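Subject: sequence -> structure tokens, single chain

Hey, anyone have a minute? Need the predicted structure for the following. Not urgent.
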Amino acid sequence: MTFSASSSQVTRSPITIAAGFIGAFILASLAVQLVRSQTSASSPSVNAGQASNVEPVIASQAAMWSVLGTSEAN
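Reply:
Had a minute. Here:
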């Protein structure tokens, strides 16, 4: 058996190399954000025991805009 080895050198444009590095950087930063958001979502909050003391805020659109309809008495 004979094996023939041919080597060809591929030359890439500097813009292609720079775009590859930028793409890798963007993917790596997105991966870091994903990992950080997963770890922060899975870890319990320090104030989790105090959550029952907080009263819920119910704000409808009417409640938010009703302040604009009141006149200020100065």
